[in-house]
Specification:
Blueprint lengths: L5 E6 L3 E8 L2 E9 L14 E3 L4 E3 L8 H21 L5 E6 L1 H10 L2 H4 L2 E5 L11 H5 L6
Parallel strand pairs: 1-6, 6-7
Antiparallel strand pairs: 1-2, 2-3, 4-5
Amino acid sequence: MKTPQTLYLLASDHSFRLVHTHESGLVPLGGKSAEDFPDVDYRFPTEKLNRGIGVYIQPTGPSKPAEPQRNRLAHHAMAALEAQWAKGGYDRIVLVAGPKMLGDLRHSLPKSLSGHVAGELHKDLVKMSMHDLPAHLAEVSGV
């Protein structure tokens, strides 16, 4: 019996990557960060006054509200997922992200892919090493 080929989208507020199953384990397909997209300006304000010593820390640059930026990155992640899926060879999709990003991914999911989503994992695993991913991905129900 053929082992189902799973395409994983791992996403965070700042980056995403695609991984798929292979006979030898998981194989990375690549990824991108928010800095790779000119329409995603994901900087957080660092302006604050340290009351203890009266030091004012300058902001690193203009900050943008997080939600629209996360939503834009989710759209880019879905475009990458859709392009990879179109190459063929996959049986199902699993979305892996923290709760807020997972919500944005669901909202951005193309209708053509919605029937192929076999599971979700509510964890930010983007920076997790390829060696450690299988143990976490085993938690996905239905996969």
